User: What shape does this take?
Amino acid sequence: MVDWLWSFSGSKETLGVALRTMSICTPMRKRLVGVLLIALFGMLLLACYPDNPQSTFDATGPVAQSQLDLFWMIFWAALVVFIVVEGVLVYTIIRYRRKSEDYDPPQTHGNTVLEISWTILPAIILAIVAVPTVTTIFDNANSPSLVGEPAIEVEAVGYQWWWEFKYDDPNNPGNEIVTANEMHIPVDTVVNVTLSSPNVLHSFWIPKIAGKVDVVPNNVNTLWIKAEETGSFLGQCAEFCGVAHANMRFRVIVESSTEFDAWLASQDEPALEPVDPLAIEGKTIFEGNQAQCWTCHTVSGSAKAQGTVGPNLTHVGSRTHIASGIRVNDQKNLREWIADPDRVKPGNLMSATAKVYTDPISKLTDAQVSALVRYLQGLK
Amino acid sequence: MTTLGIPIPKRPIHPTGVWDWLTTIDHKKIGVLYGVTAFFLFLTGGVEALWMRVQLTGPEADYVTPEVYNQLFTMHATTMIFLGVMPMGAAFFNFLIPLQIGARDVAFPRLNAFSYWTFLAGALILKLSWFLGGAPNAGWFGYAPITGVEYNPGNGIDFWILSLQVLGIASLAAAFNFIVTIINLRAPGMSLMRMPLFTWMSFVTAFLLILAFPVITVALIELMFDRFYGTNFFVTSAGANPLLWQHLFWVFGHPEVYILILPAMGIVSEILPTFSKKPLFGYPVIVLSGVVIGFMGWMVWAHHMFTVGLGPVANSVFAVTTMAIAIPTGVKIFSWIGTMWGGSISFKTPMLFSIGFIALFIIGGLSGVMHSSAASDAQQQDTYFIVAHIHYVLFGGAIFAIFGGIYYWFPKMTGKFLGEGLGQLNFWLMFIGMNVTFFPMHFLGLDGMPRRVYTYSEGMGWDYWNLVATVGSLVLALGVLVFLYNFFKTLISGEEAPGDPWDGRTLEWSIPSPPPHYNFVQIPTVADLDDWWRRKRENDSSLAPVAGSSEDEHDIHLPDPSYWPLVTAVGLFIGAYGLLYTLNIGTFTGFPLFAIVGGSITLVGITAWSLEPVNEPDSDH
Assistant: This one.
């Protein structure tokens, strides 16, 4: 029974074929019902389209896959229960609809055998579900690195409302490589992620790679992940964390281990010094006392920009997205973001605290914005 | 008359009009007050929901700001749970329990009035926050530390705390009252196992209230101290562990779910036998499963916390206990179907809602089992899948049962039938609207849409089902409007209902509709479960629904109305604001005027109440 259910797991095609086969070898009326069933099922399965960027139906790593397998197993069991119980319900109300106002049905008060069996049967089904549940809970809690599989360590920190990722510096043990909102990991490698928050609760979730684990202040949570395909995978904060909760997104960029090593090495470099005049002007503004970007942001290599309140911008030009993953990192979006961040991401703390946004006198001019954009884009 | 030398207005003996409602201690009138108030608040919660649905119709919509959206979802849930479903349950407790057990009133009629007025005070404190600088905005379970002053400096959370504290007083008073009533005031012969199922489920619910509310009260007091007096129970920057709040909240919060659903199960367990003309199938098992659910409801709270990092052992234990609670729930569902099996089923509106309840509750129960598998829940937790689940359980479950209950007992309450045709329309609009709104949320959740987001980007694949859900919510709203139309039309020109319009089975159908204020001319003697049905079938006319003669009435002694429950509750209402608003008089800052005034009023109210006799000596009954 369970094996039969498993054979459908995650495969729309198998299910479609099975239902079609079923419908072909039945008489006409039943065949119509079969076709309708397929249509309904097709609709339901299409309803959850694996191609959607945060679909849980397109698992790309063992953690998400184990969660999906468990989901399918319970789903099929639940579907059978659903069809049987709702079927009996519908049958009952049709068969025993009132035909005469005068008729009093026999006043039966119960049936011991029935009552015992419908207590025991669900218990058995639930026991069957409980076993893989418990084993999967333990599997997903214990990183394979505990039994010697090589792993890399990443620290993820949830801020209001963006993510910081920290890596050990391979060339300089004890040092950290810090980036924001885009977590690069090598493919087919175990990654142990340590989660922390210096502010409110968040939840770290990359649907295609792993179910969520909450980020809890004063508690260090860990999860392990492994991605089996390269590419960019969307993640999102899943625990309500304030005004910009909906916009607290991030990306996991899975690449080959050579690409990953190269990326890590590039992140270890100090920021590129600007060369063209506009970018140089941008740097002056960045480190100047009107804009005061440096008080919150770090640009490594700069003596002044060592702030740790906002995202580290050392290599911001190399990131694919800005504003915690909600906008593509291009000139237009960067301009909009720097000119009026609150329009892009309402409630963000930069527009609430930085003088250039709170004090009209310090407002950045268009020219200053252009210079900053050029400078930041150059921070590859 | 004076008490402690304070002149006190004369006690209302036969008040009329508004004074009658303000001073009543008749459980039936209080039940009506609860029902009407809660239904109005339910509508406000519905408006909050519609507003959210409009915002989510399409990607990157801009109808409400994120700040307002966060207030909307917090208020929607808090309203529906504490001001909608719970007090509508209380409305049925009030109106029905004394009638079902053959009593003339509850054990403490004035305490009952106090419960209502205190509930109203709590409700006002919450809803008025919209006009006093902003509603609470941290979700209905207000997870620390985002409820702390550091992250939430406005007053919204303060209103939320004060409101829930005041509502807690109302709930506790009512729960004690009903427990004492059910234990002590049952008619002769009505053993516990002859009690109607609704009364049984209310009995279990009252115990859950008494055990659960102290937990949330402790948590709220700690949070209140954090916010007002600088303590550090949940201040993470001072080293607090925010999981303390989650444990306290859900130790309350999960039994709370059963506080919401058990009365609904009780209502359905009354309607199904009547419209099937059969007794409840496996009555003792349904009672037992209700009690077992009440117990097991305490062992599953951490399934709301599967992703907070409790570790695999705790998660496994709570996964298994959560699966186990599905067993007594399943037993109830099977027994309800067993009740209809072999019956003669009439599809009047109350029955439609009850069958709808079963059909939808099955879906909610099955998605609940899906969540119980902690590993797989890691993908579902805090997504729209959970939103779908809770609405199948609480809307398809509790609200459908409540609507069924309203249609069922409306003739008893008012002596008039709600329109049957409109009722059917009401049901189908709500049934279709409910499924079109909430079923797609399963897909949204599994496609990765988190809950509590005010916006989403294009290209996430969430546009279509969000649009469908919004359309569904409008159908749902239309269904509720049909109910309102039906309600007012019936009040104006409804068909007269006899005492026993549905061929009922329990004692409330043995008296006229609406019942006289003393309920029973003679307290009945009960010999069986479904005693009224048995008497009807055995042609035993000793309990026919006839009004008593004026002579009989004269011998019935009921307590007189009283001002003091209202006064005491008004004091609580004013006093609660005292924690928020203080005056600065000259150099003296923070003068707690509201607290002093409110506290004094409550003190006067309680004192006068305790000195007031049950009956005025000169009153005629």
